[in-house]
């Protein structure tokens, strides 16, 4: 019996799809690719699953402040290295890298602006700079902005745009900013001025434990992680499983910790309505 030798067609492997990273963004939640222009037009909210991406401080300012009205104050303030911190990477080296990467001097941008035509003080914390952690400059700029608000009688709006904890590189000087910023928020209240706090993902650690939760009105974006210690740390400590939405905006709203949940596209109008009621 004779068997004929089988012949197979020679198929060349297909070329790998070349995805240009500067044109596409991958959603952190659902993993789908989004055309970058569409992503930015949608204010960095995933059109497929509704996940909120992080915005830079200047993107936040552009979203909230009236066009062309923002005047930045204290732009050249930067952190020193009080401990001469040396770890895997020296603190000075870390700061230089962050400045080069973000174009910022620190994790906070503050200044005067108008929102809905009403003059305001606005401070925004940027998660892109050492996760928006609070060091001496973040505390100082927040305090200066609060003091400027008292001088001008302007309402004060602060956006915790990814606020992290106290910055370990500065030790107790960083921890001290919690008391310093809390005292500044207290003085705003004594002066009868509005302090409006906007919480975004994530607002955790020292920032959540100080000025972020001291606002007269607290607004949060949907789905933001907000709290002190993270859920994994809490679960390991209490040895219990937490609810799936624990420390998320909706959970905190239901338990009275947050006053308003505002979608990103509606944030400016929400703030403007509050200002119109109180300042016109």
Domain count, please report it.
2
- C-alpha geometry: globular
The major sheet is characterized as: 7 strands, mixed
- CATH homologous superfamily heading of the largest domain: 2-enoyl-CoA Hydratase, Chain A, domain 1
SSE string: EEHHEHEEHEHEHEHHEH
Mean pLDDT: 91
Task: Please identify the top-level CATH class of the largest domain.
Answer: Alpha Beta
What Rg, in angstroms, do the CA atoms define? 23 Å
- CATH fold-level label of the largest domain: 2-enoyl-CoA Hydratase, Chain A, domain 1
Q: How much strand content do the residues show?
A: 5-15%
Overview of the structural elements:
With 280 residues, the protein is of the alpha/beta class. The chain contains nine helices and nine strands. The strands form two sheets. It has a seven-stranded mixed sheet with strand order 3-4-5-6-7-8-9, with helices on both faces. Strands 1-2 form a two-stranded antiparallel sheet. Strand 5, helix 4 and strand 6 form a beta-alpha-beta unit.
